[in-house]
């Protein structure tokens, strides 16, 4: 990690940044040198940055040194709202030339992640990317190869494998509590975001935004998928978006995906932007399950959504009713991914979140699109280290 600013970096930086941000940078570098903080830049200061910024700020090992958004006023507003004291930029090139940093956190429109992540890696930055880390599996794989060639770290959301509920379910499966596992199901949907059009544009859709959580959970629990079959549809061809009005929906807002894991296990994911749920986007207080796993000696149901779950019911007895386990979060929150991986760089530890897993999920999404378009079963080539827990 580059902790010091060289003279040439200083001159480049001084030429491209204002006096105010220069001061901020020098102050932050002192902090970096004193307490070994990792310097983070956030690109994309929209909705989800409201969850990321405070979480990153809560870590003593992290300093947010830059905020960037093509709508520069958003970077400025977030800087003020969260008292970040960061430099702000309106485009990635100025960000990369500006105040030095170690890791970029990518929170922009989904379609931009691949190109922005590539630029950051080429400039020697570690990257945490919101999902998806790229638009295609090939683009994602090339990013990983680039990262490896430069000895950099790359990660992709989600962070579902970090929850104690995921760990509990994984242990139950590994210990054989369910007997021979056969089938699983995951679902996630709501009535769709109204604040940005990218969710519905080409390379958007309900799979990379929502189904991605269930795909990560089910492959994380059951192992990498070997092939995929899917049916996708657009139920609502037009949407009303704040600031834009009526737009055309170009990617699936309704998706059913079948995954074939090892040993005959089949799982199913259902996701969409037309799912009424009175518990809302975050399923607060939801008592019903969104993930279920069946074996011949037991079954498990994860309550609420897998990214913010309220516990797991394990049914493994003819005599006594199913028991609720893991009601507490143990500190886990869905927006913790960037914080955990940044801390892992500082502490030189290996986090549970694994980029090959995110890449595998990206291949599943692409394969589901191919399967739906062709009516064929699509074999997968990617895999990842499993079991995760
Ligand atoms: N909003 C949520 O609750 C939520 C939750 C989990 C994950 N996510 C993911 O986070 C990402 C962002 O979602 P959001 O809801 O915050 O969207 P958003 O539209 O609110 O914010 C995206 C921001 O990125 C900026 N941007 C776009 N292109 C850019 C570029 N090239 N350079 C710099 N800035 C750019 C936009 O101006 C916008 O401010 C998506 O991948 C989404 O799937 C969102």
Structure in words:
This protein has helices at 7-16, 19-35, 49-57, 72-81, 92-97, 113-122, 137-149, 164-174, 206-222, 337-347, 355-374; strands spanning 38-43, 62-68, 87-89, 103-106, 126-129, 154-156, 181-189, 227-233, 238-241, 245-248, 254-260, 266-272, 289-295, 299-305, 308-315, 323-325, 378-379. It is of the alpha/beta class and 389 residues long. The chain folds into 2 domains: 7-156, NAD(P)-binding Rossmann-like Domain (Rossmann fold, 3-Layer(aba) Sandwich), CATH 3.40.50.720; 160-379, Dihydrodipicolinate Reductase, domain 2 (2-Layer Sandwich). Strand 14 (299-305) and strand 15 form a beta hairpin. Helix 6 packs parallel to helix 7. The longest helix is centred in the last third of the chain and has 20 residues, at 355-374. The model is unreliable at 1-35 (pLDDT under 50). Bound molecules: nicotinamide-adenine-dinucleotide. Nicotinamide-adenine-dinucleotide binds at residues 43-48, 68-71, 74, 92, 107-110, 112, 116, 130-131, 195-196, 209.
